[in-house]
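Input.
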Amino acid sequence: MTKHFQRSALDRRQLLKGLGAASLLPLIGGVTPFTIGSQHAGQVVVVGGGFGGATAARYLKRANPAIEVILIEPAEIFYTGPFSNLHLAGLRSMDAISQGYDALQDRHGVRVIHARVEDVDAAAHTVRLSTGRELDYDRLILSPGIDIRWNALEGYDEEAADKAPHAWKAGAQTELLRSQLLGMEDGGSFVLVAPANPFRCPSAPYERASLVANFLTQYKPKSKVLILDAKDSFSKQALFMEGWEQLYGDRIEWVGLSGDGRVTRVDADRLEVETESGIVHQADVLNVIPPQKAGSIAERAGVTDDSGWVPVKPETFESQQVEDVFVIGDAAIADPMPKSGFCASAQAKVVAAAIAASLESRPAPEAYWTSASYSLVGPAYGISEAGVYRIQDGNIAEVEGAGGLSPLDAPEATRALEAEYAVGWYNAICQDTWGTQP
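Output.
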């Protein structure tokens, strides 16, 4: 477990309050890495309109308005993974976690094309769209998020996801899981299958279990949550477990790897899962979060390795395998940074600075990143983790003592304050990413 920093709770709260407000711009080399205006322009194509891609597109235009920035994203509305668990619990509508692209186009000068990128020709510096059109690029940014490793978990394929949803891409799957929760009989069992590392949003399965438990406490008080986990530890574990005990008693049961928590087979028709020892668990609602990999366009672009993720150059996030292709967000191997929306945004700003510099034949600014992760154990019970990262000996490393976790045994007022900060964090990062007005 990551250590808890008790020595300066006030300083830490101020840091998190800042990270949860509008000041989301990571500084690079001690100064903001953006210069306005240049006589050297180029064309940059950005694939993926989530926290990484949309931020990169916006900050490239901010770095140099003369750069032609084209954002390719099939969906006209993006539903955020962050706060999607609140929808499952009936605490937010889908509209409240939706983002559009009008502001990026109308106010920030990004050209948005709603299509799918089918292929990348790195030698020709072109991308081919689902419309048949080809676009040239001087630099290419891929922010494709994750894809599911279908059948990596026996019995869990695309058809199974219609019965035992993963809801790990917010949208239709989120709505499906919510409808199943609403239809579950009181006294039923919500079974959540959590994967081994790495996967998108390390703390999100446990926030989901928390908010589902909150919903059940109010509307289906005889029901319980069972988490079957392929790991023996997880993000913010002690904080979650403390909150579970305080808010939900024995309503949530967590079974880790050493306790036979790793699921090896799924039967979506029967809503059953089997663990390594052969024990079968029956669910009334089954939420399977399966193994993952980088979004499929990364593989077609030739930037993934045998792990299914993308190795990048730490200083710039340029692919280690393909020149002039940069990969950010969940798809990139950027340990020890977590795969999160905040980190995708921070990486996007570093990449925007690096590309703007390279198009002007300047060296990239020195990079560093901040990270803030909020989780809601209940609507008024927030916990958080912060980190700062720099390059050390050619690798990304966490700066010792620069971040930390919420303290254990904190008073109710502190947990309520962190829940407020979580809302501020969400609103601010969405404004910063898609360029919307407060």
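The first strand starts at residue 43 and ends at 47.
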